[in-house]
Amino acid sequence: MRGELKSCRQCGRRLEFEGEICPTCGGPERRPVAQALALWLPIALIVLPVLLCCGLYPFALLTGSDSQRTVDLEAKVFKTSESLSVFNRNEFGWSEVQIFVNGQYRAKIPFVPAGESRTADLNAFTDAHGNGFRPSQQAVADLRIRADTPNGPGTVSLSF
Description:
Layout: E1 6-7, E2 14-15, H1 31-53, H2 59-63, E3 71-72, E4 75-79, E5 83-88, E6 94-101, E7 105-112, E8 117-121, E9 142-149, E10 152-159
Parallel strand pairs: 3-10
Antiparallel strand pairs: 1-2, 4-5, 5-8, 6-7, 6-9, 9-10
């Protein structure tokens, strides 16, 4: 209301002013901030613990990422000079299975049921250019498996 005297919260002078800054000392009028804090602080103290307890903390909103959790695949691998057998030790099946050898050669297996194994011939592994893995000339040093699971994408890495 125009013409009403207010006290500056910084210098204490009683002045007639309408803005958020005192024309005498330049101090801010803090009432809008205090009112906003009084409104939002209780809401934040209620909502934040609920989000944390439910595992819904909005890191994706803070980072701009919509990344998904990765499931740990439990696998046992049997290697021969000509093939790799992958045993699924999880309690769920894997679909769209991709096996990577030495970081560049890949083979696909459509599905590996829980508690079962599937075998891939090492000659079936190819790199991005279509070059085949040559088991007679190359050794399997490391292996990475990626697969879709009922709980999201899964991975496991192994070294030999």
